[in-house]
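Hi W.,

Here's what went into the run:
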Amino acid sequence: DAGVIQSPRHEVTEMGQEVTLRCKPISGHNSLFWYRQTMMRGLELLIYFNNNVPIDDSGMPEDRFSAKMPNASFSTLKIQPSEPRDSAVYFCASSLGQTAEAFFGQGTRLTVV
Amino acid sequence: QKEVEQDPGPLSVPEGAIVSLNCTYSNSAFQYFMWYRQYSRKGPELLMYTYSSGNKEDGRFTAQVDKSSKYISLFIRDSQPSDSATYLCAMSDLRGNNDMRFGAGTRLTVKP
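Here's what came out:
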């Protein structure tokens, strides 16, 4: 298995632009998590899905952030409009069930200038 | 005060040294404790998992939990250059991945 696949690996965008991050979970996994990692705040959970349904989005910083999971093999995290303080590494992780080991993708490094 | 405190380092040791990595926490409800290893430009990967107090050993790695002191440790024996990475502690009161609270991570370099 190729593991969790995220795209793009790097994204540089101007403030105010829309950014879409993509994730393909491991086949068969039914839980998907989006995290953000910064030097200041470390690794933080933004939202997680179970069987394609958003269960808890309390970690989403504000309305500029939205996430979707239209099917079991694809999820997106969208930021609109983007701001410099959104610059971070965004990780997607998936697991077979909420309590099983979560496998992380390689992350998307986002820079908003 | 953060729920989970971890010294970010950096920590540099010679090859073969014993490494001690630590985290403290404030939430006494935490009972699941994890250590993740994150190589540069990669996502975290689960290294060790323990439940409640006690020790767990896996090869050169030993995880210790002291719930009375709210203190957890990861020991690496006979450290190797390939152990050079950032080590993140994580903990939760329930077993769910969504409940995990992560430390800031300690950056470790093992010099040949």
